[in-house]
Design goal:
The chain has 8 helices and no strands. By secondary structure, the chain is an all-alpha fold. α2 packs across α5 and α7 runs antiparallel to α8.
Length: 209
């Protein structure tokens, strides 16, 4: 590797580190500005939409872009959040109930846990789809379910990404505050893009046949 190429790689890496830290801080600030509950989903959508611009090699001003999506999607993202939270609460209540009922089958308990894990993956793909294309919420959820089932490799990347961030936050002080959410967003978008490419490739193969 030539020195100039190495310098470009180092510069790009440092640029991404600074960008991820900045976006992570904006996510915290805007989540708090919405009193957490009403700010969480708009801030998350704004974070993903901003990161998506940089993944596509666009370089918009970070703060203005984040604020634009936060305002634009405040109502709709909270509607999406209500659906996500409601379904999540149902799954959580079901697991808690099975934990306290001794005569229930262990199979039902672990099935509920697996369903909850799949639901988290569906949420990730739903959020990625939400910032990728405008379509009804039901279509986002249906497509996210199909992607989760038909693309295990990207789903594994999300799982490993979540695990890596968890251990980094646990054992490296300061990482959580500056990078945890933005890195998770990058993992979700990258995994979703891989899933989309796999789907397009399968469609092309079917058309060729």
């Amino acid at each position: 590797m030539q020195l100039g190429t190495f310098s470009n790689v180092v510069y790009t890496f440092c640029e991404w580190v600074a960008r991820l830290a900045y976006i992570n801080l904006l996510w915290i600030l805007f989540t708090l500005s919405g009193f957490v509950f009403f700010g969480f989903f708009p801030a998350t959508i704004a974070m993903l939409a901003t990161l998506r611009q940089f993944i596509r090699k666009n370089h918009p001003p970070v703060l203005q872009t984040f604020w634009h999506y936060y305002k634009k999607e405040f109502i709709n993202s909270n509607k999406l959040g209500l659906v996500i939270v409601a379904i999540g609460l149902i799954l959580l209540i079901n697991i808690r109930f099975l934990q306290t009922t001794n005569n229930m089958s262990t199979f039902l308990f672990y099935s509920s846990v697996i369903m909850s894990g799949i639901y988290i993956l569906i949420i990730c793909y739903t959020l990625a789809s939400y910032v990728e294309i405008e379509q009804p919420l039901g279509v986002h959820l249906k497509n996210a379910l199909l992607i989760t089932i038909s693309n295990p490799i990207p789903s594994l990347f999300i799982i490993f990404g979540f695990a890596a961030v968890y251990f980094a936050v646990t054992y490296l002080s300061g990482v959580g505050f500056f990078f945890s959410v933005s890195i998770l967003g990058l993992v979700i978008l990258s995994s979703a893009n891989l899933a989309y490419k796999n789907i397009l490739k399968k469609q092309e193969n079917l058309s060729a046949n």
